[in-house]
Design a protein that fits this description.
Layout (H helix, E strand, L loop, with lengths): L2 H6 L2 H9 L5 H8 L7 H21 L11 H8 L6 H26 L5 H8 L5 H10 L12 H25 L4 H4 L6 E3 L2 E7 L8 E6 L5 E6 H34 L1 H26 L6 E3 L4 E6 L12 E5 L5 E5 L5 H17 L11 E3 L3 E5 L12 H15 L4 E5 L8 H17 L3 E6 L7 H4 L3 E9 L4 E8 L7 H7 L4 H9 L3 H88 L5 H13 L25 E4 L4 E10 L2 E6 L2 E6 L3 E5 L14 H4 L4 E3 L5 H17 L4 E5 L6 H12 L3 E6 L9 E6 L1
Length: 785
């Protein structure tokens, strides 16, 4: 990309504005070096970087980038054995701290599942140098002063120095408070000259204070004398100051060596933080100009939605739609010199340069730019005094240079093409230049005030006219670009508004040929049609937006309704489950009491009735499946027959029909029990199997199958006993003569608990530990009566 175009389109001003959004000198340098790229992949990558940073700013509002310094010179000096001063070390620690804060910031975003692969990849490169940061901060404060805590030696030296200074001040202050002090001293103060404590003595009393003269006032009337009584103390202070400096130099050298050790990691941090600062600088500038990320293509297509000139105030500049490279590759903007044409030209050029530099463009979403190898422009007053060239000649020199380089991967912008010379020759020359650039396949936008070029867009495929709208009522341009409508002369209307008589205007019109008048009328008709179409479009667009909003609101209401309905279902089921569970617990307590009464008082309560009562309670508990409503039983439409296998829906158990008891009542056998059940509570499963001679207990499926053994290993004591109780009931219903309970060996607590429970069970005939082939002492064999 040629540097001249950057100056012509004022891209350098964009760069200058963006510098103010950088957080460090590193970011500023990268902004200053920014140039548009002509590599498609690189442009796409740059745009993705800006997109990610802009997304983070939208989510968080900021990025922790303060405290970054360009410490590359410090690192290089440390690498060659140089000693860094305290301020340079503070800047190094500050940069490490900034990198740590940035890594934590990105990690937090990743934990919240924000998609930022580029930022994640960059921060991953930075090593954690917290130990070095802590080591520096323990030795040097934020102002660049070495702390007493930097070493024990430094602390002791400074303590001695402060005691020494106190003794010196005490002796000198006693002199300034003496009876003769007011007469002999210029001022009753203790001051310092040549790093030694002195007092100001009047010239005539110098002999009274035996000591060393270190300085005198400009008038010579005051001498700054170090009295003999503090000379030795000052000498000691000087020695302590020298030792302090030597210790500080040693500490700084030690820290500089640590910097040298981590120099490679530090350089990586500096380069990475510079890139991050640069990315967020582009994102902050995008927010400032209300920019958006453009789509990037290699097909020479430009599609700008409500594009604005980025250097003009947002609340004043007029936004325009521009399409180029689809149905037409050239736009010729005609009409009088009203100022809006050049702005439109620069807006397209700047949006292209900004997009190719990885910046967001001042346009609405879904805008699109192409990656051009070169952007050429001939804009503004090109008069060259140094070369003694006229405006026309300067323009022509520039155009000749453009025509030498332009090709199908170029964007060309011509402002007032052919101006500065005879109108007839200038128009012919403009048409010829346009033809030459068009035939090379370049994308081109040209402005001109020559009426001859109005027909150019109609006579050539791939070329369209455009103009900048002018308000006759206010005599001002609206700066709105009208693509497809050529510009027209407003001289007669403007003159009439300004007060020129109708007779003069009529006479002037009579001197224009009829063909020109027809063209002007056609242009007026096109402008009116264009405005009407735009009004209709905007009205339809508003209706569409309101309809979409209504649709979204309705969708949201439906979702909220479904969620509320689902929540009510779940709440109802949960409430029902709690009620039934409470009833079940209470019933279990009652059953325990009944069984205890039977054991103690010889009650004749049947065991199978207790078991069946518990099973009915279990099947009454909801299955807990969310969002499902009760589904009616799908009974088979058939006549029930004795021997049919059926399901008793009130108990959730399977059994066989024995006989019809009259009407719709049947005797059903479930395991060892027989009961009377109405047909409405029966669900047909299958017909009687002929080979069966008697109804058997149904053992089918995971829910109803009873294993011959129960494995309690790993269970807690209370839960294990509960499972044993239920298992014994199920085994009795299945009419098993013997079962095994696996409890493992372990501490023996579980085996003891199981044994005690089984000993008290009325239906248990005998219990014993398993033999060698049955599992040994880890298994209890239970035989039923």
């Amino acid at each position: 990309m040629n540097d001249k175009i950057l100056k012509t389109l004022e891209f350098n001003k964009i760069i200058a504005e963006m510098e103010g959004f950088a957080s460090s000198s590193l970011g500023v340098k990268k902004v200053q070096a920014l140039k548009p790229s002509t590599d498609f992949e690189e442009v796409v990558k740059w745009q993705e970087e800006t997109d990610e940073s802009a997304n983070v700013l939208r989510l968080k509002g900021h990025a922790p980038l303060s405290g970054i310094f360009d410490i590359k010179p410090h690192i290089k000096r440390a690498q060659i054995g140089g000693i860094l001063n305290a301020v340079e070390l503070v800047q190094t620690a500050s940069t490490i701290y900034a990198s740590r804060m940035m890594k934590n910031f990105i990690d937090d975003l990743l934990e919240n599942e924000v998609d930022i692969p580029i930022l994640e990849e960059k921060t991953t490169k930075m090593a954690d140098l917290t130990p070095l940061e802590r080591q520096i901060k323990q030795a040097v404060d934020d102002n660049g002063d070495v702390l007493d805590s930097a070493s024990d030696t430094l602390r002791n030296i400074r303590q001695k120095r402060r005691r020494n200074e106190g003794r010196i001040r005490e002796k000198l202050e006693s002199l300034t408070r003496s009876r003769n002090a007011q007469k002999m001293l210029s001022d009753a103060i203790v001051t310092i000259r040549n790093d030694r404590y002195v007092i100001p003595v009047k010239q005539e009393y110098r002999s009274h204070y035996n000591g060393i003269v270190h300085d005198q006032s400009s008038s010579g009337q005051t001498l700054f004398i170090e009295p003999q009584v503090v000379v030795e103390l000052n000498n000691e202070l000087k020695e302590l100051q020298l030792k302090e400096k030597q210790e500080i130099d040693r500490i700084l050298a030690e820290l500089s060596a640590e910097v040298a050790i981590g120099s490679e990691d530090l350089l990586t941090i500096v380069y990475t933080m510079a890139e991050l600062d640069f990315m967020f600088t582009k994102a902050r500038y995008s927010k400032e100009i209300k920019g958006s990320s453009p789509k990037i293509n290699q097909n020479g297509v430009i599609r700008l939605n409500k594009a604005r000139h980025p250097l003009l105030p947002i609340d004043e500049v007029v936004a325009n739609d521009v399409i180029l490279g689809t149905d037409f590759s050239t736009i010729v903007i005609t009409g009088p010199n009203t100022g809006g044409k050049t702005i439109a030209l620069k807006t397209v050029g700047l949006c292209t340069l900004m997009g190719q530099a990885g910046m967001h463009i001042p346009a609405m979403e879904d805008s699109e730019i192409a990656v051009f190898k070169e952007v050429f422009a001939d804009i503004g007053d090109e008069q060259s005094i140094e070369q003694s060239l006229s405006t026309f000649s300067s323009h022509m020199v520039n155009i000749v240079d453009i025509l030498k380089q332009v090709d199908h991967e170029s964007l060309v912008l011509f402002d007032e093409l052919g101006s500065g010379t005879d109108p007839q020759e200038g128009a012919a020359l403009a048409i010829s230049i346009l033809d030459d650039v068009y035939q090379r396949g370049a994308r081109m936008i040209a402005t001109t005030h020559y009426p001859e070029l109005k027909a150019y867009g109609y006579n050539r495929p791939g070329v369209t006219n455009a103009s900048v709208e002018f308000n006759i009522e206010t005599l001002r341009p609206t700066y709105k670009l009208l693509i497809g409508v050529p510009g027209r002369s407003n001289a007669f209307e403007i003159s009439r508004r300004l007060g020129l008589s109708d007779s003069v205007i009529t006479h002037a019109k009579s001197m224009i040929d009829s063909e020109s008048n027809e063209v002007e009328k056609m242009i007026v008709s096109l402008e009116d049609s264009r405005r009407e179409a735009e009004r209709d479009y905007e009205e339809a667009h508003d209706y569409l937006k309101s309809t979409e909003k209504l649709h979204q609101e309705l969708q949201q209401q439906v979702i909220e309704f479904d969620e509320r309905k689902q929540a009510l279902y779940e709440k109802a089921e949960e409430k029902a489950a709690k009620i039934i569970e409470k009833a079940k617990v209470e019933a279990e307590e009652v059953m325990k009491e009944l069984r205890q009464m039977r054991f103690e008082n010889g009650s004749q309560v049947k065991e199978h009735k207790l078991i069946e009562a518990r099973r009915r309670l279990n099947t009454a508990v909801p299955n807990g499946e969310k969002g499902k409503t009760t589904v009616a039983n799908n009974k088979q439409k058939r006549e029930f027959q004795p021997g049919d296998e059926v399901k008793v829906t009130t108990f959730g158990q399977k059994g066989h029909l024995i006989e019809n008891l009259g009407g719709t009542d049947w005797q059903v056998q479930i395991g060892i029990m027989k009961m009377k059940v109405n047909e409405k509570d029966l669900e047909f499963i299958k017909a009687e199997q002929k080979k069966e001679t008697k109804p058997l207990a149904t053992i089918k499926g995971r829910d109803y199958h009873v294993n011959l053994e129960l494995d309690l290993r790993g269970e807690r004591f209370e839960a294990a006993l509960s499972r044993v109780e239920k298992y014994i009931d199920d085994a009795l219903l299945a009419n098993y003569p013997r079962v095994s309970i696996i409890h493992g060996k372990g501490t023996g607590a579980l085996r003891t608990g199981v044994t005690e429970y089984l000993k008290q069970h009325r239906s248990v005939k005998r219990i014993r530990l398993g033999e060698a082939g049955e599992g040994g002492s880890g298994v209890t064999i239970v035989e039923f009566k």
